[in-house]
Amino acid sequence: MSGKHTLIDKSPREATAAREIALRYGNRPDALLEILHDIQHDMGYIPEAALPALAKALNRSRAEIHGVVTFYEDFHHDPVGRHVIHICRAEACQAMKANELIAMVERFLKVKLGQTTADGAITIEEVFCLGNCALAPAVMVNDKLVGRVDAAKMETIIAECRK
Amino acid sequence: MIKIYVPRDSAARSVGADEVAAALSTRAADLGIEIVRNGSRGLLWLEPVVEVETAQGRIAYAPVSESDVASLIAADFHKGGAHPLRLGNIEEHPYLKNQERLTFARCGITDPVSVADYVKHGGFEGLKTALGLSGAAIVAEVTESGLRGRGGAGFPTGIKWKTVHDAAADQKYVCCNADEGDSGTFADRMVMEGDPLMLIEGMTIAAIAVGANKGYVYIRSEYPDAIATMRQAIVAATEANWLGNNIQGTDKSFDLEIRRGAAAYICGEETAMLESLEGKRGTVRPKPPIPALEGLFGKPTVINNVLSFAAVPFILAKGGAAYKNYGMGRSRGTLPFQLAGNIRQGGLVEKAFGVTLRQLVMDFGGGTFTGRPVRAIQVGGPLGSYLPADQMDIEMDYETFAAAQAMVGHGGLVVFDDSVDMARQARFAMEFCAIESCGKCTPCRIGSTRGVEVIDKIIAGEQREANLELLSDLCQTMTDGSLCAMGGLTPMPVLSAIKHFPEDFDKPQRLAAE
User: Fold this and answer.
1) Chain A from 12 to 51: CB within 8 A of any B CB
2) What is this model's ipTM?
């Protein structure tokens, strides 16, 4: 028996998982963003090995899949921290000193926006509007929105993330 | 069982509503209370607002924190007992009482995902009417109402629907643009979290009007609560046969699907949203063809903002003329304004067009949060103009704003106090455009980057006059040459900041002179 056709799946685990998620959406190319969200939900980021698998499943070119993954800010190309804190720096939060809050967090965690702390606990990201503009400044800790964030609240959030 | 309402709105949750609800639920059995997670009434600075259903109406206590729960229980709050946080009947609160709530009439009152509650409060009356009308008659009613697109462009909704209605095609779509990315706006989010069935009803009416059987709601990923609530509402509406096949036993069917965005501001532009819905990069399509004729998958497509669809059930239930009665000039009906930024009483204020900026910011909003004087207000999102405090008597109306080189947009007001540096805000407008541009057209992609550089030079006092002229020229190129509003309107905040606050662009010179 030739080694070409085999029931044993020799592709990387990430590719197999990506194929399974695509199949849940009937391999519909228009569902690509949903598929990518689900992959990131399961694996924490979009692994390189998922791209050719998706290209084949959705009948798109690998370049097209790569183009989509890199266009949208949501999709991480590398693993991120155990917790992701999005800090809003849009106008309503700026009016409530969001830039000062960001500078404070960067100093405290010793990382810049888009980076992960040395202990792997926290990635901080910028975001443009969380829809909590009446209770600015706002941050989102994983999927949880927090409003009226000051230094004390931020310290509590960071301590929780580091537990 | 006494009903206690604790909002599930994400703004309320962001300041502790879940913790309050959890603390109350541990005592639910012995107090004989039932906790309902309602939407928010929009008095966001008071959140979390806890309401108790009594014979005297809904008595509110706010803002309640987890640590207040014990003293509330000791004060017999569930019987409306006296307590320092007691506000009285919430509907008598001036912030609510002075509004004209047509779209937000139910938000905060009901359980958002209960079809029974929705129907009890007038829900699906519009759809019932629509089911008995021809598509053309529904379009005529919407046209009569004078409703204009609430996403920001203000295009007449009836005309858009008529174009799709008149187009011959084997398949049509209805798409809701819920990519509410403008800073200072949260009305779409509040609808989706607080009264999602109204959006479903509005979209279903649109589908019946134009002859579509498939729809999508494109919701930004920054709104996980809205996504979850909309999904629950779609399941509930389908189970009750207000959605899906043969709606209420008629020959009308409409299938609705949620799609998540992925943090691209540009996908709030309708053609970029279509690309995204097709699973592609969110780049802008040149127009024509217009989406009403060649939209999603090349088929005729109705695309409206959440608030446009949300206004429709009222229009069908009460008639287009009833809606048209509100407003001024060619801006008919109401707009849910959103008071945001540095503001004391931030929240949602639905008023007829014609209300002044001063009434909104000072009377409803109570001035700045910091207590310092208001210096600038950005109206209509990151692409809207900055207005100075001395122009607050302007009436909120599409044409009045256009005449003042500003825009009403999606009704978001972001207030800044006198500590704001308007040159930094102008720079940010260009920076935001550079970050969020889809890259398809050059004036937007490159112009925004050059814009940041030129403003940096002006801030540094480098050849100020020459660079101001260059910036003005660049803004003209972006306005005239961009494919869509992203690059086309970024000059609005920039030029308005220079026009109204020239002193902020002249700091090095003034320092040198001193």
Assistant:
1) 28-34, 36-37
2) 0.95
